[in-house]
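User: For a reading group we're discussing how well predicted structures match intuition. Take SAM-dependent methyltransferase. Before you show the prediction, I'll give you the sequence so everyone sees exactly what went in.
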Amino acid sequence: MADASRKADRADRIDSSVPHSARIWDYWTGGKDCYEVDREAGERIRAVFPDIVTLARVGRHFIGRTVRYLVEEAGIRQFLDIGTGLPTVDNTHEVAQRAAPESRIVYVDNDPLVLAHANALLTSSPEGATDYIEADVEDPETILRQAARTLDFDRPVAVMLMGILAHVADYDGAISIVRRLVEALPSGSYLAVRDGTDTDPRYVKGLADYNRSGAVPYRPRSPEQVAGFLDGLELVEPGLVSCPLWRPEAQGAGATAFSPLYGGLGRKP
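Assistant: Thanks. Here is the predicted 3D structure of SAM-dependent methyltransferase, as structure tokens, for the group to look at:
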């Protein structure tokens, strides 16, 4: 009964009159968990920046390649995925547990629609575990405290910040959040970052139109600013680059190497 009440509460909190980034990305990647207002906002951005659908897929491919590297080459078995978004194909736990069934994953988001779909993310291999935290990226203390129910912070953890830091208005504030998360990690842990940059004027204009829609603003930063999130860490080759250039695979998204999405991975010494 309590679970039913929580689901009803989450449904009541979903505002279908204002576009939301998670639902718009769901629309661009072919999902159905979006509303007309999201499809309209998505098409407005697409009119200015036609490559946005490809870019959304580039972002998903980057997550998959990052998780596979962390599991198969770095030996990571614990993941803290902050700003999860709506469930889609090859979520973090699916990629990780396919390679290492004992992997443990904690997802974090504060969007009611994402939370309403959380059960799709709470499946797990018998050997591993998944959990879901309702929290804001700007509250790292709550995230770390609740994640400790599932993750052992005495062992390496990979923190995933995929497309979430651009929602933090103040750059210094975003840096502070990252520093606090990394501070809580033991040596041998990793930080994975992916965000939109200001390298393509069409993308910047499309996001400006999106930000005027009433949705939570998304602010592209320079590649140098995104790289700043990884300061103090040992960068995994090739460093912070346009996402299609980060350890590409033969079955990649087929996108131009000049995508304004930049990503990188760093190891805590």
